[in-house]
């Protein structure tokens, strides 16, 4: 067995009295270092070591994956619980695009991507000649006067079911949470785009009412009637059935203007005065005007904006107007 200097570790011979490197005396030394062959671990020991290491790594990996999944689900639930009426409509539109080959829903999807999305809530609505009624705590949500979906507002969004229809038939049903998870995975960019652009073509309600009236009446008449009603605290804007609003500036029917949002247009109805006959027999005229065209005509210059805004701010809303 080879020996070494206890001071510097240099190899020494059995009969050496001094270390030739450091000069350490080797006489009567009981501290000579002995180098023994190291014991090598067995193959079985190595196998157990790697097996345990692998199990520990798997536990850590599964733990991290579970934590990430849990955090992601909690974030999803948080986003759904705070989802507005418009974003819920956007979710329904994108989900329908993913699953259903339906002309009405595809048209609504194309319009929503352009920022054209009007959503209104009812208990009963007539769409394309069919009356759609919401049962119990459900409500009917009408999008662009083309498609509808219903959901239960007493339940949280994660618990409720979306029922999609084109007014003629039920297109499909889906849990809101499941729909959101699928859209988030496949078409989340479209959902965000719709949410960002939803108000691009949406005129403020009072402004739309003034422009609807201007489409068939003179500035002077409208201004006089609004100022009179405002002075006497008379309500002027009402929400009638089927998404129609009514700007009522006088006691007779001729003084009323009905309008409703329809995608990028306003559908406007008014009674057209005639030279003959009683007012009750005068015909109702219906026109469809693009919102952009109305803006170009009545809301372009500084003076036009000032005039429209001054009248719009004086319109007193009836309690039926919930927007």
UniProtKB/TrEMBL annotation:
Domain Lreu-0056-like: 207-315
Residues in the signal sequence: none
Keywords carried by this UniProt record: Membrane, Transmembrane, Transmembrane helix
Transmembrane segments: 47-68
Pfam families: Lreu_0056_like, Zn_Ribbon_1
UniProt cross-references to InterPro entries, sorted A to Z: Lreu_0056-like, Zinc_ribbon_dom
Annotated Gene3D superfamilies: 3.30.1460.60
Zinc-ribbon domain ranges (all copies): 4-26
Domain of life: Bacteria
The protein's name: Zinc-ribbon domain-containing protein
């Amino acid at each position: 067995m080879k020996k070494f200097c206890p001071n510097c570790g240099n190899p020494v011979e059995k009969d050496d009295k001094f270390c030739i490197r450091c000069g350490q005396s080797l006489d009567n030394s009981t501290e000579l270092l002995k180098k023994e062959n190291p014991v090598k671990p067995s193959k079985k020991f190595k196998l157990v070591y790697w097996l345990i290491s692998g199990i520990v790594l798997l536990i850590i990996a599964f733990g991290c994956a579970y934590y990430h999944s849990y955090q992601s689900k909690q974030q999803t639930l948080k986003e759904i619980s705070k989802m507005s009426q418009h974003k819920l409509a956007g979710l329904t539109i994108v989900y329908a695009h993913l699953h259903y080959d339906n002309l009405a829903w595809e048209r609504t999807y194309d319009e929503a991507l352009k920022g054209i999305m009007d959503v209104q809530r009812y208990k009963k609505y007539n769409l394309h000649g069919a009356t759609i009624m919401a049962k119990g705590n459900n409500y009917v949500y009408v999008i662009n006067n083309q498609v509808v979906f219903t959901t239960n507002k007493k339940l949280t969004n994660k618990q409720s079911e979306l029922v999609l229809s084109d007014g003629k038939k039920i297109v499909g049903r889906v849990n809101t949470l499941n729909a959101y998870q699928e859209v988030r995975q496949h078409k989340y960019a479209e959902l965000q785009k719709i949410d960002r652009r939803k108000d691009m073509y949406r005129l403020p309600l009072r402004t739309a009412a003034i422009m609807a009236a201007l489409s068939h009446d003179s500035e002077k008449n409208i201004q006089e009637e609004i100022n009179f009603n405002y002075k006497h605290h008379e309500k002027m804007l009402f929400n009638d059935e089927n998404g129609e609003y009514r700007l009522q500036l006088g006691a007779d029917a001729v003084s009323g203007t009905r309008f409703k949002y329809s995608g990028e247009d306003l559908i406007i109805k008014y009674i057209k005065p005639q030279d003959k006959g009683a007012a009750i027999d005068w015909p109702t005229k219906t026109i469809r005007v693009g919102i952009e065209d109305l803006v170009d005509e009545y809301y372009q210059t500084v003076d036009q904006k000032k005039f429209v805004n001054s009248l719009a701010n004086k319109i007193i809303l009836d309690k039926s107007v919930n927007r």
